[in-house]
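Forgive a beginner's question, but might I ask you for the amino acids of a protein and the tokens describing how it folds?
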Amino acid sequence: MIPFSHTWPYETIRQDIYVDSCPFCQAEQVLLPLKVKDLKPIQEGRKRLLVFPCCHGSLTVIDVDRDYLLSDRKLR
């Protein structure tokens, strides 16, 4: 089980995925280089490297649910 400290909330608007703030530089309303169609392979067990466009901070997404990205590292 992934601890809550390794999660980050996201929102979907149409096919785009946003976060309210970047966990690395705290930039607001960051459009992620992910689409809704990219979430299914992650849910099925495929890991995905996610690089935030605002500051180029990166994390590995190991799972997703309807509200949170689950990472392999502490984000909070």
User: Anything to note?
Assistant: The chain has a mean pLDDT of 94. The radius of gyration is 11 Å. The helical segments are 39-43. Residues 39-43 form the longest helix (5 residues).
